[in-house]
UniProtKB/TrEMBL annotation:
Biological processes annotated in GO: cell wall organization; peptidoglycan biosynthetic process; regulation of cell shape
Active site residues of this protein: 156, 175
The protein, known as: L,D-TPase catalytic domain-containing protein
Protein keywords: Cell shape, Cell wall biogenesis/degradation, Peptidoglycan synthesis, Transferase
PANTHER family linked: L,D-TRANSPEPTIDASE YAFK-RELATED (PTHR36699:SF1), LD-TRANSPEPTIDASE (PTHR36699)
Pathway(s) of this molecule: Cell wall biogenesis; peptidoglycan biosynthesis
Gene3D superfamilies, A to Z: L,D-transpeptidase catalytic domain-like
UniProt feature coiled coil, ranges: none
């Protein structure tokens, strides 16, 4: 009788150890996969307080651009149309194009789901506007740029603008501006869907 119970306990213990080992190995595999994908990802970081843009590649700095310009009234988590604020958050490059006014323009997916959620929670947009934005996102369509949150934001050059104004002031309506030379440097790294973290 004692031996029989001992066998039951041993088999239960073996099964539990097997499940624990399986769970441990699965977690290790998932962690290594996530770490590996971070090691190969290329993304952009925009530091609005230091006025610099960094391209990160495999966790290391590949390009550092200083002296960028942001919205003339700074940066904010909730950015409204006409506020001249640069939105803080994580976005994706949604378009890459030449621009007559700005030389090159790299659009971001603003407003995105997180932006819309924050604005709804803060009563800055109504439910109908939120639904309009989310419906476009869920259907992989262009997000409306005419809501109270505004739009048409991205990273761009200065075109034929005054380089001295660019160096001395934050002058944009909410975009991130670089010199034309800097935008060419960034263009070498750019691809659609690239993550852009603005803080």
């Amino acid at each position: 009788m004692y031996t029989h119970l001992g066998r039951i306990n041993f088999s239960i213990t073996s099964r539990c150890l097997g499940q624990i080992l399986f769970a441990f190995l699965l977690n290790l595999l998932v962690f290594n996969f996530a770490a590996a994908s971070n090691q190969t990802e290329t993304w952009i970081e925009v530091d609005t307080s230091r006025l610099q843009l960094t391209v990160m590649n495999a966790g290391k700095v590949s390009l550092l651009i200083r002296g960028i310009s942001i919205g003339r009234f700074g940066a904010s988590r909730i950015r409204m149309r006409g506020s001249n604020l640069t939105p803080i958050g994580t976005f994706r490059i949604s378009s890459i194009r030449n621009s007559q006014r700005f030389y090159k323009f790299f659009g971001i997916d603003y407003p995105n789901r997180k932006t819309a959620d924050l604005a709804l929670q803060a009563n800055r947009i109504d439910l109908a506007t939120w639904k309009k934005i989310i419906k476009a996102i869920d259907n992989n369509m262009s997000v409306p740029q005419d809501t109270p949150l505004g739009g048409h934001l991205g990273i761009h050059g200065i075109g034929k603008g005054d380089i001295d104004v660019h160096r001395r002031y934050n002058w944009t309506n909410g975009c991130i501006a670089l010199t034309n030379e800097q935008i060419n440097q960034l263009n070498r790294w750019l691809k659609l869907g690239m993550r852009v973290t603005i803080f």
